[in-house]
Specification:
This protein is an alpha+beta fold and 416 residues long. It has helices at residues 6-9, 53-64, 91-101, 111-117, 156-165, 198-215, 220-227, 245-258, 304-316, 344-370, and strands at residues 13-21, 33-39, 43-48, 71-74, 105-108, 124-132, 138-150, 175-184, 282-286, 292-296, 323-327, 379-382, 385-388, 394-396, 407-411. The strands form four sheets. The protein has a four-stranded mixed beta sheet with strand order 1-6-7-8. Helix 7 runs antiparallel to helix 8 and helix 9 (304-316) runs parallel beside helix 10. It is flat, with a radius of gyration of 26 Å. Mean pLDDT is 88; it is low at 403-410.
Length: 416
């Protein structure tokens, strides 16, 4: 996608403005809290409010030159995060103090300290110049994105990549130029906060889009539909769009608004956000009593334990009480990435589904032999039992355990 100044010359209307956003704190209910216990022979045991046990393990290992195998990060309930607990905070301090004190050290950040030292959403100054025709077709855009990183790069490179990659929003724009600038300032550095970098830019772009719609006297949803990205459209960073979901969402939004007597008081904004495949793993286990155990290292922030259980229940046609999730520390749990609002269900959920289907296949193989079936297609699983179709023969699921032991299925794909 090349930028031509001619794109603005072709426009019937050019709108230009600068927008500023402030830093914002996540305001999770539970503040940062960490407990570290140092043992010169065994290493660190760490209990902390975090979105990712393994990330903490890796970073503490690097800071203190301790092998990751000697760092155990324990699974604990998390009182909210929204991206604010992806990075390190109190963990290195608690570990250092534990070494010094030769005793466990627990640190809790008070609310006022959270606002001072908790990493916020990055402030931004965004300038946008948009060209549009009277028929609603966007001809060109020139955006300058300037984000306040604080004192350290830290999350900055990811932030700038994501923000600039979404600089055209969910729209087809034939001429686009995007300039991204990450600025060091003498402030606390920022971090992710629900789609890092995108809400700031989305606010600016959608404000311009709404102004353009008003200027050419066009319904703002119709303007968006006219320029909506469609299946296989290649975005500014070279990534193709998969599907036509944006157009479908706009039509549904219009349908809802048409039924709203106060539709003129409803604001419209749109955004595109992609979920990327990240390597992850889980372990499924058929227990002695026939229940299915999901062993994972995922930090549950978005209800994912319920999602995983629902996936397994759907595969095996069983009740939720027949499935249990087991959380293990970072030394024994299957490796998973930090939990995120838009990535955990997609990535780990696909792995749970894959492992569940594999475990089901193994159970059916064993059941087919014990039920004396001619082939595996004669076996049906339901309500914790394996049935031979067309007969009254059945065995409990727990009877399909291999060698009277556990049947384990693990998965660690390169992508979801």
């Amino acid at each position: 996608m090349l930028f031509r100044s001619k794109g603005f010359e072709e426009a019937d209307l050019v709108i230009e403005d600068t927008f500023k956003t402030s830093k914002a704190h996540h305001c999770y209910i539970e503040p940062h809290v960490s407990l570290a216990q140092w043992d010169s022979k065994k290493g660190f045991n760490i209990w902390t409010s975090t979105q990712g046990y393994f990330l903490i393990q890796q970073k503490i290992a690097a800071i203190f030159s301790v092998p990751p195998s000697k760092i155990k990060v324990m699974p604990v309930e998390n009182g909210g995060a929204f991206g604010g607990k992806v990075s390190l905070c109190l963990e290195p301090l608690a570990c250092a103090l534990s070494i010094k004190a030769c005793a466990p050290v627990r640190m809790t950040m008070e609310r006022d300290k959270e606002f001072l030292y908790g990493k916020p959403r990055f402030p931004a100054t965004i300038s946008i110049k948009l060209g549009i025709k009277k028929n609603g077709a966007i001809t060109a855009i020139h955006s300058k994105l300037c984000y306040d990183l604080g004192a350290y790069a830290d999350f900055g490179p990811i932030l700038m990549y994501v923000a600039t990659n979404n600089a055209c929003g969910p729209y087809k724009i034939p001429n686009a130029k995007v300039e991204g600038c990450a600025v060091y300032t003498n402030k606390i550095s920022g971090t992710s906060f629900r789609a890092p970098g995108v809400p700031q830019y989305c606010f600016a772009l959608e404000s311009i889009i709404n102004r353009a719609a008003a200027k050419i006297e066009m319904n703002s949803i119709e303007l968006r539909k006219k320029n909506a990205v469609t299946n296989k459209y290649v975005r500014i960073a070279g990534e193709p769009v998969n599907g036509n979901s944006f157009f479908t969402v706009l039509e549904k939004a219009q349908e809802i608004l048409d039924k709203n007597p106060k539709k003129d008081e409803v604001g419209i904004a749109a955004c595109l956000w992609e979920t990327r495949a990240i390597p992850c793993s889980i372990l499924l286990r058929l227990s002695d009593d026939g229940r299915i155990l999901i062993v994972t290292g995922v930090s549950d922030l978005t209800g994912v334990r319920t999602v995983f259980i629902q996936i397994i229940c759907d595969i095996f046609s069983i009740k939720q009480e027949d499935v249990e999730i087991i959380y293990q520390d970072s030394s024994t749990a299957p490796v998973t990435p930090p939990s995120t609002g838009s990535g955990t269900t997609y990535n780990v959920g696909h792995v749970v589904k894959s492992a569940g289907e594999s475990l089901k296949s193994e159970i059916i193989k064993i059941a087919a032999k014990r039920l004396e079936c001619k082939n595996e297609n004669e076996v049906d699983l339901k309500d914790g039992k394996a049935f031979k179709k067309g007969s009254d023969k059945s065995i409990d699921r727990k009877s399909t355990r291999l060698n009277s032991s556990h049947t384990d299925i693990s998965r660690m794909p390169s992508s979801a």
